[in-house]
Amino acid sequence: MAMSGGKDDGSPMMEMNTTPLIDVMLVLLIMFIITIPVATHAVNIDLPVSNPPENLDEIDPVKNKVVLTQDGRILWNGEQKTDGELLGLLEQSLALPVEPELQFEPEANASYDLSANVLNIIKGSGITKFGFVGNERYATFGKTDINPLNVNAPN
Fold first, then answer.
1. What is the pLDDT of residue 120?
2. What does the pLDDT read at residue 49?
3. How many CB atoms lie within 10 A of CB 80?
């Protein structure tokens, strides 16, 4: 840029200083660029709405009961379920705001293998509120009367 320093004779400079004017114009240009809305090229698409799982009504928010029957069935709150369905229900119960209690009750002659399998599924699901119920029925299991036939009983 060329600059003029004026004359040496002491007369005033007659040219206008345009540097502040250019600075103000650049600031205004930047402000206008910032305030212009960004042109968006959006394509509106109607996406499918996610449906909540249908079997949320099968999960009690307070407690749920898993019963193993003598004939090898798994019952969740009285309804027969498969291993996969049981795992899905356990995962859904964990998604609730407060984890419900899970009660485990095998029948008297339920399969040990089925019990071990279901307990592994429960353990793998991450359930923390878990308990065995109905064990009071077996409080006398294996206990026999001392002298059931009164043999050698004093007369």
1. 92
2. 76
3. 11
What is the model's pLDDT at position 43? Answer: 79
d(CA 66, CA 116): 13
pLDDT at 141: 65
Exposed e or buried b per residue across 91-126, where buried means at least 16 C-beta atoms within 10 angstroms of its C-beta: eebeeeeeebbbbbbbbeebbeebeeebbebbeebe
Q: Which residues contact 61 (CB under 8 A, 6 or more apart)?
A: 96, 98, 100
Tokens 């071990």 found at: 116
Q: 13: exposed, middle or buried (C-beta count within 10 Å: 0-12, 13-18, 19+)? A: exposed
Closest CA to 72 of 120, 112, 116, 110: 110
Residue-wise pLDDT for 98-131, tens only, equals 888 999 999 888 888 999 999 999 999 888 888 8
Smallest CA-to-CA distance from 81 within 47, 112, 122 is with 122
Closest CA to 53 of 83, 93, 80, 82: 93
Q: Helices (DSSP H) in the chain: which residue ranges?
A: 19-35, 83-95, 112-125
80 neighbors 73 (Cβ within 8 angstroms): yes
- The ranges of the chain with pLDDT < 50 are 1
